[in-house]
Design goal:
The chain is α+β, with helices and mostly antiparallel strands. It is 34% helix and 17% strand. The chain has a domain of 86 residues. The strands form three sheets. It has a two-stranded antiparallel ribbon with strand order 1-2. Strands 3-6 form a two-stranded antiparallel ribbon. It has a two-stranded antiparallel sheet with strand order 4-5.
């Protein structure tokens, strides 16, 4: 019986020569697909003012780590509403923190007119509002991951995003 002794360093180098370009290409494809699917533009607050902070689509980025036994790629965004857009959210209550919440509500004038009252220029002020939630999540990360990952020969499985930052 013969024994074969392989050179571990040569084996790792050969695997990385094939693996790194494949993972880099797949990461670029998934990132490109995610940027196409992610919502464009910024959110408007209730007063019609642009929401301060970064927009979702330009904030998407990727990072690749190459170790001796592992090649990992990360794709995502650090904006607060990224997970909510991707996973959706349940109905929840939004409470004011000191100041009143100010919203532009088109149907509000008709509702108040039926009760014999008037609003101030289409703006309404509340201590709390019941948000209906985001019932239609945009799976801007998992959709391109499943498509391009499988296309490039990877076995794809996804884990749920933790709901710690979601309402």
């Amino acid at each position: 019986m013969a024994r074969v002794k392989t050179n571990l360093a040569a084996k790792i180098r050969a695997a990385q020569t094939v693996g790194v370009p494949l993972v880099a290409r797949t990461t670029a494809q998934v990132l490109s697909g995610a940027k196409r699917l992610a919502p464009k533009g910024s959110h408007l607050s209730g007063s019609g003012v642009r929401h301060k902070g970064r927009q979702l689509q330009p904030s998407l980025h990727s990072n690749m780590e190459v170790g001796s036994l592992r090649i990992r790629a990360f794709i995502g965004s650090k904006v607060d509403h990224a997970a909510t857009v991707h996973q959706g959210s349940k109905a929840h209550t939004i409470r004011s923190k000191g100041k009143m919440l100010k919203f532009r509500w088109d149907r509000g004038n008709a509702i108040l007119a039926a009760r014999g009252r008037r609003g101030r220029g289409g703006f309404f002020y509340f201590q709390k509002v019941r948000h209906p939630g985001n019932k239609r999540p945009v799976r801007y990360l998992t959709t391109p991951l499943a498509m391009f990952g499988r296309m490039n020969g990877f076995r794809v499985s996804t884990l749920g995003v933790s709901r710690t930052r979601l309402p």
